[in-house]
Structures are given as C-alpha cells and as structure tokens.
Amino acid sequence: MQILRHSEQTLKTALISKNPVLVSQYEKFEAGEQRLMNEAFQPTSDLFGPITLHSQSDWITSHPEAPQDFEQFYSDPYRNTPSAEKRSIYIQSIGALGNTRIISEEYIKWLKGYCEAFFYGLTVKLLEPVSVSATRCSFRINDNTQNLQIHAGHILKFLKKKKPEDAFCVVGITMIDLYPRDSWNFVFGQASLTDGVGIFSFARYGRDFYSSHYEGKVKKLQKKSSNDYSIFDNYYIPEITSVLLLRSCKTVTHEIGHIFGLRHCQWLACLMQGSNHLEEADRRPLNLCPICLRKLQCAVGFSIVERYKALVKWIDDDSASTPVVAPRHSREDNVNLPKPAEAFKDWREWIVKCLAILQK
Ligand SMILES: [Zn+2]
Ligand SMILES: [Zn+2]
User: d(Cα 82, Cα 119) in Å, to the nearest integer?
Assistant: First the structure.
C-alpha cells in the first residue's frame, strides 16, 4: 500500500491559497469553521487522513490528472454556480428502482433527502419517474455479463430536453446498467458539465452483480428487436440494502460535485477522489476534505455547522420525510418503510466529531 502524503505547507496553500483576496475570504469564516478546515494540515488529525493507494489499477495511478486547489477552482471560468433563479437539483428516475412501487418511491425520497442535506441550501426536486421506453434510448445485452444495458449518451440527451427552467442540474438514476458506446463494456455513470446533466446506474451496487448466480442475466434469444422495450418489464432489480443506499448516496454526491466544477481530489482522503472500480469506490469516504468542502461552500454558500446538522438529522430520521397520504394509494401502501441507515453509522460518528470542533 502506498500513502500519498503532502506537506503541511502544500495542504495549507491548497486550502487557503496565497492570493490575498482568498486569504481574507478565508479569515471571514467563523472561528469554528476555520478550526475544522485547518485540520486539513494538522499531521495528527483523526478527521482527515492521506489518500492511500492499494493497487496499480487505482484511479490516481491509472489516470494521472492535474490537481485542483481552492484557488484554481475559484478562478475556473467554466465552473457552474447555482444562481438565484437556478437553485434546484432535479432527480429523474428511469425504470423501476425497487421491486415494488413503494420501495422505488421511498428509496428516491431517501436519496433526495440526502442530497438536500449534502448540498445544504439548494432545493432537491423529484421529476415524475419514467420508464426506459419513454427515453427512446438504445439498449443491448452485454456480451460478457449478459445483463441489460442502456446507452448513457441517449439518456443524457433525454434529460437535457427535460431540464426545467429553475434547474441547476438534472441527474438521472437507474438500476439498469449503462454503456457509453458499443466498444465499451460498461460505465457507472456519465455527465455533461456544460449541460448540467448526468446519469448514474446503481446496477452494479447490489450484493450479487459480480456473483455467478446474478439474476439479471438474459439469454440472447430473448431479445426481440432494437425497439421492443418489453424486455425491461419485470427485469431484475437489486434489493435496496443499506450498503446500496450508501453507495448510491456517495455516487450521486460525488457526481453532482463534478457538475459544480470540483475535479478529482488528490489532497486527502475525500469523496471527490476518483475511483476506478467498486472496491476503490467503497474505500473512498462520504465526506469532503476541507479543500473540497471550501469549494462547495463557495459555490452554495451554506453554514458548515448547519449542513453537518442536516446530515446527522437525515441519518437519524428513520424514514422519508413525507408520509404517503395521497388517496390514490390503497391502504396497505400507506406505510413508511424504515430507512436502512445502518451503513451510515461511521459517517454519523465522524460528523459528530466535526460538530464538536465547530462548536467548541
Ligand atoms: Zn469522478
Ligand atoms: Zn477533497
């Protein structure tokens, strides 16, 4: 295992910068906020540690990129900032997300609530769910894994057309695997930063995708024609476990981070680290390092304390915010499923430590 350790000075400059305007902006943060962010360059910090590399296939080794410090982010003319008119993040589900309508509805509300806390100060709205056929995207059966896949670029075009006036961005989520082009095996997600749209699949986040008895395999013969979407009817959907919920919250916030213009983090262990495979994605934390936190705070303008409190509240609230009361639902539908938040326990403990530093 290799440890990517930067000097205190390097981290301090990456966070605060040497530009006098940005230094004085930093000094305007509350004392507690500065105390927390300064943990970035405390070698003994138990909140922020270095990035560890476990294999040659890890992201940083296989995809060398230029690092982005706070100043580079701040002065990037192409980054996206929510305006007073465009402060909503929209989530569009494509195809069923859970094995019943209730699970699909609750699950997307959990994700919405998480994004609302994470991007504290922005509004998160749900678009009416659509079927795969409604997007008119191309699809295929993957030759290696035999699962159904939909064309990521076609979905992005669909989302761009549907983008509401007040949208900062629209993110599509689906339980169907994605492919970006014929020659590629698969992709976890794809985004267009200029259009402010992204599509992410959680098909591979279930517990059985990589097992030999994965139930999403289809026989070639089952495919009728390239525009017969009935193949998606009752197609296999992984169970919404706590781990799947955590992985999807992690992916969506990482990817929306990119839409704000945050590049892959190379400073400290951080949500914005790149990841090349599922094991590396699992290793990456749910939290932003102070450098990335300052970038997001600069774009959104939240209070760091209030944001952390909202995240704890989301973890503690055991079900989605709004009970199902619409009369069209039958009586047995009228339930709130408990939110499977067990996997967020470590993240909660970590946030509580941050709150202690912030409010000392
Ligand atoms: Zn990324
Ligand atoms: Zn970071």
Answer: 11
User: Could you list the active site residues?
Assistant: 255
Which residues does 276 contact at the CB level (< 8 Å), separation at least 6?
Answer: 57, 58, 59, 62, 63
Summarize pLDDT for 14-37 with one digit per residue, the tens.
999 999 999 999 999 999 999 999
CA of 348 to the centre of ligand 2 (A): 19
Where in the chain are the domains? 2-79+266-323+336-359, 88-254
Ligand nearest to the CA of 15: 2
Fold of 88-254: Collagenase (Catalytic Domain) (3.40.390)
Closest ligand to Cα 269:
2
CA 271–ligand 2 middle distance (angstroms): 7
| Closest ligand to residue 264's CA | 1
pTM, to two decimals: 0.92
Q: 263-297: per-residue pLDDT in tens?
A: 999 999 999 998 878 888 888 999 999 999 999 99
Quick check: 226 and 138 in contact, CB under 8 A? yes
CA 220 to ligand 1 centroid distance, Å = 33
In the three-class reduction of DSSP (H, G, I as helix; E, B as strand; rest coil), residue 25 is classed as helix
Taking the C-alpha atoms of residue 205 and residue 201, their distance in angstroms, rounded to an integer, is: 9
Residues 6+ positions from 176 with CB-CB distance below 8 Å: 94, 95, 132, 139, 148, 149, 150, 201, 203, 232, 235
Rounded Cα distance between 234 and 309, Å, is 39
Distance (angstroms) between ligand 1 centre and the Cα of 275 equals: 7
What separation in Å is there between the alpha carbon of 9 and the centre of ligand 2?
16
